[in-house]
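RECORD TYPE: protein structure
NAME: LutB/LldF family L-lactate oxidation iron-sulfur protein
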Amino acid sequence: MPAFPDAARAAVRDTQLRRNLAHATTTIRTKRAAAVGELADWAELRETAKQIKDHTIEHLGHYLRLLEEQVTARGGTVHWARDAAEANQVVTDLIKATGETEVVKVKSMATQEIGLNEALDAAGIHAYETDLAELIVQLGGDRPSHILVPAIHRNRAEIREIFRREMPGAPDDLTDDPARLAEAARTHLRERFLAAKVAVSGANFAVAETGSLVVVESEGNGRMCLTLPETLISVMGIEKVLPSWRDLEVFLQLLPRSSTAERMNPYTSIWSGATEGQTFHLVLVDNGRVATRDDEVGRQALRCIRCSACLNVCPVYQRAGGHAYGSPYPGPIGAILSPQLRGTGSPVDDSLPYASTLCGACFEACPVAIDIPEVLVHLRSRAVHARTERAAMRFAAWTLRSPTRLAFGQRLAGTAGRVLGRRGFIGRLPGPLARWTDTRDAPVPPTESFRDWWSRR
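PREDICTED:
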């Protein structure tokens, strides 16, 4: 992926994309505000969730060991993966051991993060997405652009065309009526559910004290995946663990209201270890989370419960869309999570901390009080080109400490302004300074400084 500014520049020229995003995010944002307003103790719940997450992250090793003990005691098998390659290999080997070449999948951010579908495909295993939005993305050969609504960048007419073109058995008279689209998807998936012997899921939460995993969803497709197949493989980031059921109670009030604007999700599936007639495997994935935990400022990103509230209030996301972030985690949370999990060795990860206006709307919306602007500023200080910025700030400080140097600098700027700003603004500064003028119109410095005016008068 290119750097965020380049990807965003192309995205904002897509007027249909901007209309789709504006309509969807405005609708979700309005409904969420109403759902949150019903709880008089929302601020207290938010603070409690923050404290639970911070405590768990601080004692992560203890709760993960407890989770493993409880899952194992209930007939499940726990696997540990240091990175995406290990996680993909574990899942691939488990599926191959069953002799199956097809699996059904519950919507999972963790499997998107590690690129599981692509790894399975390379091994000759096809994964069928069963979440409606994920199905749209998969059939369209597309990429998700939103945490909660992966196909938010598509409108109903576009979805109809994708179904008619790519979905086997789609009716010829299919319209863009939402009920007809949902029914076509349901008919298509029913055969997959009945035939599948293996399912892959993520997890919204895991309860350490009982080894229980939790998946919340709105369509029922997840429930079908979790219960029908003979083998269930759940892939989970290690930060999803919670200490107890009382802690889970807090998050089951926060997550539905912040994501789907519902009081509770229509389907909340909870299972502890292997259920009767089913083999269960839990794959716990690090993939940069331990390194993120070691950063005192950046670690708060691990509180994230993937609700997408920050995306729906972000003015940058609303205009650029999710694809510009080059990550399964778009929007404000992606701008702080992806560079920490993946490092800043690529143009897109190096640029993501700058994909924000620092307006603070994301912090206000976050149900676990992640101070995203604080982390963005922190990560900017670690970016490759931050060295140039620090040098510029040191030079500015040196100049401002001396009235003589400041006066000389002002006269020099006035002279340069007359040369470079023939049209009333500076079109482009030379060298590294071009990074400033490439993104804004810089006014021409006055020919006479206030200091000189004062002396003359």
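COMMENT: The domain at 39-287 is CATH 3.40.50.10420 (Rossmann fold).
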